[in-house]
Amino acid sequence: MIIHLDKAITREQRAALQLLLKTEGVSFGELKPSDGGTILARSRPGLNVQPIADLPGVAGVEPDKTNFKLVGRGEHPDDTIVKIGPVAIGGERLAVIAGPCAIESREQAFTIAREVRRYGAVIFRAGAFKPRSSPYSFQGMGEDGLRILADVREEFGLPVVSEITSPAYADLMVKYVDMLQIGARNMQNFELLKCVGRLGMPVMLKRGLAATIEEWLMSAEYIMAEGNDQIVICERGIRTYEPYTRNTLDLSAIPIMKNLTHLPIIIDPSHATGIREKVAPMARAAIAAGADGLMIEVHHDPGRAMSDGPQALFPKQFGRLMRDLYVIAPVVDKQVDFGYLEKAALVTPAAGAGGAETPRAAFQGEVGVSDHKAILQYFGDEVAPAPLRTYRAVFDAVRDGEADYGMIPLERATSGSVHENYDLLLDHDLRIVGEITLRIELTLATRPEVEPDAVRRVVSSPTVFHHCDQFLQSHPDWERVYAEDAATAAALVERKEGGADAALTTPEAAALHGLALRERNVETDPRNYTRFVVIAKTPRSHGPRRKSSLIYRTADRPGALFETLKVFTENDVNLVKLESRPVSGRPWEYMFYVDIEADAESVEFASILKAIAEHTDYLKVLGAY
Fold first, then answer.
1. Average pLDDT of 110-125?
2. What is the C-alpha end-to-end distance of the chain, expressed in Å?
3. What are phi and psi of 81, to 5 degrees?
4. Fold annotation for 543-624
5. Rounded to whole angstroms, how far apart are CA atoms 441 and 528?
6. 475 vs 465, 470, 596, CA distance in Å?
7. Does the structure show a pLDDT above 50 at 447?
8. What's residue 354's pLDDT?
9. Under DSSP, is residue 500 helix (H, G, I), strand (E, B) or coil?
10. Domain 347-440+529-533: which topology?
11. pLDDT in tens, 482-498
């Protein structure tokens, strides 16, 4: 049964309820509070629930509606984010777990970890205990393998996950790994499920060989009933009659699970297909279907792997897959972040501006605008967003130490560069330390009681009106009301009682202000992307920096710009952007903004930078990231 509590329940009333439940022999668990809170109790046959319902502080008692109460969305509508060290699974950033099927040696593990870390994996996977179909197959290295996993974490900064096969290994696993995996064969090993539930560590629960979705969720329920809600569910294919793949990958499980449970879901295309050439296509499809992450088997010499070699990707194949995912992810409001772990190390509570416990990231506009969403996708929940009125205010806040970072747009796919911010980069002594490309999705939203046909006025910013011009042409009778930004438009419509107003805004801003989404994706061009950069007072002190931004001015003579470009060509440096901007106060003179695929702040690049400086009157490195 589900016991709903009053918002104003007192501590004494809560204690009296718990005492009555214990007296009646009813086991129970309290869910995360919403309003007064909810208690899930396992009612015994013949229990009279009326005395419970009559207690002060109890709003009502209802029978169970589903078998999976704790993992279901009914009492937990918000998505759960599972944290494994610095990595979050279930948020805006994709979590890609990679590594070999099994630990075979220290050299093997380090070689593979180095490669997958280089290509963007954020968690390392490998088995130390291997349940195999044949008792004569390689069973894993046991504790020696776990020690190697711990060394991988220490050396490469990758959290590690490994399979637990018996409750007897619980203390050993806790000692060495960051996340436990329940394999397909153990999905209904209920004593093992209870054990990992009591351990309280993050758990990855794989779907059984022929398990239904309800059976899978009930196994997660066993774990959560013991008090552990840090569960990631993993689809790895189910056994069918089809012989052309190892298993049949059930991609339909992704939207089904997204509807049924608040737990994050990842996909294991390696075990699902069992064939190297099929892994990447299924991985791409899984992300397009809405998965929160992937688990990919990678081996530097799969022909000699001691288990599952035919399904393991070569490191370079894994690298190509990550580049594919980088392109696909923004379409489903996700991001592949190649600097995920570096950001986690950079953004620490001790780094907060003005002694704050959490670092602050400033942005222009209100909560719910695209700039705010860019912060959430880039930093996750590691920073406190700080809305400001203007882009200059963002730059000033970072310069003056009132914010640790600033998120600013530099380039929009449909309208070009944001010149104001390029000029502010020139004026301020700040550094670009990161970038993110975000797909901008716009929606028509109204108050819930306003029907779409009743709309007479539409509220938004001039930029949003421009992006939605084709949609607005089909409603020529609508009056346009201008707001500062899309989030402000949503707030204005929320406050307009009894009117017939609609907002062109982001889905996030609409949800924040309680508006109903009437029509999604009303932007004219679905390839409506914006490139944002992160600014800070000092450059990044660690982690890979694959790209740099420069600004320089050349002499006013023929071939001056060509001489700078020739330096890049001769040193095999790839230019990804070149744009000119007028020099303020000096008519017909121009600055050139350049993006290159190189670390311009590295020792190796110093000679190239010197050669460029010889052909310019002014040169500034805006940042390497």
1. 97
2. 53
3. -105, 120
4. Alpha-Beta Plaits (3.30.70)
5. 8
6. 12, 9, 44
7. yes
8. 57
9. coil
10. D-Maltodextrin-Binding Protein; domain 2 (3.40.190)
11. 999 899 999 999 998 87
